Amino acid sequence: MSNPFFNLYSHGFARVAVGVPECRVADPVYNAAQTIELARQAAQGGAVLAAFPELGLSAYTCDDLFHQQALLDACETALAEVARASADLDIALVVGAPLRVAHQLFNCAVVVSGGRILGVVPKSYLPNYGEFYEARQFSAADCAAASEISLLGQTVPFGPELLFQLAGLPLFRFHVEICEDVWVPIPPSSYAALAGATVLVNLSASNIVVGKSEYRHQLVAQQSARCLSAYLYTSAGRGESSTDLAWDGQAIICENGELLAESERFLAHSHLVFADVDLERLSRERMRQTTFGQSVRRHHDEVRRFRAVAVPVSGPRAAQKLPLARRVARFPYVPADPRQRDERCKEVYNIQVQALVQRLSASRMSKVVIGISGGLDSTHALLVCAQAMDTLGLPRANILAYTMPGFATSARTLQQARRLMAVVGCTASEIDIRPSCLQMLKDLGHPYASGQPVYDITFENVQAGERTNHLFRLANLNNAIVIGTGDLSELALGWCTYGVGDHMSHYSVNASVPKTLITHLVRWVAESGRLGGEGAAVLLDVLGTDVSPELVPGDADDKPVQKSEEAIGPYELQDFNLYYTLRYGFAPTKVAFLALAAWRDRDAGDWPEGGHVARNAYDLAAIKRNLKLFLDRFFRLSQFKRTCVPNAPKVGSGGSLSPRGDWRAPSDSESAVWLRQADLIPDREP
Question: Which domains, ranges and CATH numbers included, belong to the chain?
């Protein structure tokens, strides 16, 4: 028996499907058969909901044939066939059909499951402009006099205010609207989302004209984002009448503004698209964005009209292995697409520069002091300082940059620091901190001062503290401010010394930028040619340098024996853990499940080009081990450092760790609850 950990439904996901069956105009028998076949494929694929096009059982383009009794009778018979077929499927189906109710004809979405009709949703808005003449055949939802109807021997709920709750999935509540309903200023689905619907379904026909496909994308993505929901959109395809129109059969699934899946358009056969929607993510976003709740209160009268309908669908058994069929980016802070990545780097860089420009302007300062180690973070901070001076119209000589070699500084990083300061054009200085550090070690009575090779935490922090002391006093001397260089990843893991340069400064430009993104920011500047050929060369050398604090003397070849990732785990994996822990508050088991989907396969194809991180794959044992390390450091060991960080700009929606911004937490909390959850993660895949 498989462990529930390996089933996507155990982690707040649910698989949905959107179908575009080939149809024949006014041939309900054929159309029902196509729909049933796709429904079976959807159920076999693990989906719990499948949606089909508007008026799919009849075809949308029947025009005045909709007033022919033979067609309407045949549609009800076809609907009965779909209902019978659903008896053996653990899935909810939403199909489109014209239905007669109390001497009126309605364009309806019918929800079917377990062999029964569970509810009928009539279309609220009937287009009667351009190529559309629906008001000629149909009545709008608000023309109905009844909230229940008799259909195929059943009494079923009827109306646009129905919410369908899947029995086995508490977070899966869906609402259905039809085509034009989402094109109006306030779609019915907006109120449905406020009433608790996490999945919104649109049965559409929607003929195709130039430019309409892209607009559908925008419409569906924006509605899913505004409603903090998943949105399933299906439209009519092959077989609809081309007397005056054409049809492309576009199917789209979005989640909170993100496109998860879409069909190829203009296909000549019936087809399905699947997506795994993250219901827990949607729930947490609604909980986090308190204005969503305020909207519920403001529209209380509209919200309370909705009625819940139980749907007897439980989803695949938890013990069944069902991997996530959803792309999970390895680098959530770094887009995989090169064009998008360049745009991200440009925007982050400009945010950092603008923030520093404002701080200098507001403080009436024209100079900055910064320590340059020859490593990644200080390199990027110096680049930001240089652009800030350019923006302010000040000479780059106003950047007072200091490299401060200590007992463990390698020749490589020292040379990189010197070269970098030269190509930037700042005022470059070098201060050997070893004499002052040795004096302090003597004052402390440390064994190293008497010749013993004792490289303990005191030895390390004397060097870090001495550098910081120099920087702040240099700032005093030169009427400048100290620029911090520490990044978001270091703050998350507590990989910084309290009160020194990677933690404390007058203003910190990198504090909400993770290490994986800083890598690409530095590469982006190198490739932009801003620093010329020599500048690009030194930046690439920095990118090729192992991340190390260089506080313990290196080996005989002058290579650092300290490597940050050996102590705190690979940044590429810890940044992944940070994103899903900080941004969404996911349980460790879910973070590991996502990490396994993202990192298990080296050849999955979304590795950002270049960077200091190793291109590895991680098995479940490595994911679990590094996640536990992250959780203990993040929740127990590091918060006291984050409680007093200096001012710094937030750059991304992934969050910051400023106590004045995204993250407020006690400094003395425990990590036990997260570690116990992490213990539930299996050690290996079956």
Answer: 4-311 (3.60.110.10), 338-678 (3.40.50.620)
| Active-site entry in 75, 123, 496, 590 | 123
pLDDT tens-place string over residues 394-451? 999 999 999 999 999 999 999 999 999 999 999 999 999 999 999 999 999 999 999 9
Give me 12's structure tokens. 């707040």
- 617 vs 152: which has the higher pLDDT: 152
Q: Which residues contact 592 (CB under 8 A, 6 or more apart)?
A: 5, 620, 623, 624, 627, 678, 681
| C-alpha–C-alpha distance, residues 279 and 686, integer Å | 26
Q: What is the pLDDT of residue 554?
A: 87
DSSP class of residue 637? I
Q: Does 123 participate in catalysis according to the annotation?
A: yes
Establish whether 54 is a catalytic residue: yes
Helix (H, G, I), strand (E, B) or coil at 500: coil
Supply the pLDDT for residue 376: 97
Q: What is the SS3 assignment for 171? A: coil
**230-234 and 199-203: which strand pairing?**
parallel
- Strands 92-101 and 49-51, how do they pair? parallel
Residue 614, pLDDT above cutoff 50: no
Separation of alpha carbons 273 and 268, rounded Å: 15
Rounded CA separation 389/395 (Å):
6
CB atoms within 10 A of CB 466: 22
The pair of three-digit structure tokens given for residue 44, joined into one six-digit string: 């076999």
Per the annotation, the verdict on 22 as an active-site residue is no
Q: Which of 22, 54, 180, 240 does the annotation list as catalytic?
A: 54
CB atoms closer than 10 angstroms to residue 300: 10
HSE-CB of 132 using CA atoms within 13 angstroms: 16
Q: Using the CB atoms, write b or e for 45-54: b if 16+ within 10 Å.
A: ebbbbbbbbb
Question: What is the C-alpha separation between 89 and 339, in angstroms, rounded?
Answer: 43
pTM (2 decimals)? 0.93
